[in-house]
Design a protein that fits this description.
Elements: E1 2-6, E2 11-14, H1 22-25, E3 30-36, E4 44-47, E5 52-58, E6 61-65, E7 71-75, E8 88-90, E9 97-98, E10 103-107, H2 109-114, E11 121-126, E12 133-134, E13 141-142, E14 147-152
Antiparallel strand pairs: 1-14, 2-3, 2-13, 3-11, 4-10, 5-6, 5-9, 6-7, 7-11, 8-10, 12-14
Length: 154
């Protein structure tokens, strides 16, 4: 099984090893890349990086399960669960089918940062082998909808 994962938001690419959370940095939940939203970003639409079913939906994170069974997690900021949904607005429901590019959650990275939290957004294939995501780059700008990384099951 191979999978193309697209950027769920625009920003700057960041290697998972630089994410300020040991679980993501060590790729314990899976391999992928992170996106740092622009510093002046106001509310941002975070879109589906793959097509599939919204398997899990929290105010600060979501998982989309593809038809092939791979599950992609998008986590909006680090430790943002502590915000209890404040500043996050779901645009879909759990169980809903989505296509690549469909808005899933809207959030304000500036509001996250104003609370002293990182707004970086890890995007990972759950339960994948560390290093198995193959991004074209882990630095520089990325636009929402651009190829973020490819992944192939071993």
């Amino acid at each position: 099984m191979s999978l193309a994962v697209y950027a769920p938001l625009s920003g700057t690419l960041t290697a998972l090893g630089k994410v300020p959370d040991p679980v993501f940095a060590a790729q314990m939940v899976g391999s992928g890349v992170a996106v740092e939203p622009p510093p002046s970003a106001g509310p941002v639409d975070v879109v589906a990086p793959v097509a599939g079913t919204v398997a899990t939906l929290h105010p600060h994170a979501f998982v989309i399960r593809t038809d092939s069974g791979a599950a992609v997690l998008v986590h909006l900021g680090i430790d943002t669960v502590r915000l209890k949904g404040e500043g996050f607005n779901a645009q879909v429901a759990a169980g809903e089918q989505v296509e690549v590019g469909r808005t899933v959650i809207t959030f304000d990275p500036s509001a996250v940062r104003s609370r002293g939290m990182s707004a970086v957004c890890p995007v990972v294939v759950l339960d994948s082998r560390p290093g198995s995501a193959r991004p074209p780059s882990v630095t520089g700008p990325v636009s929402a909808g651009a190829l973020l990384f490819g992944w192939a099951a071993p």
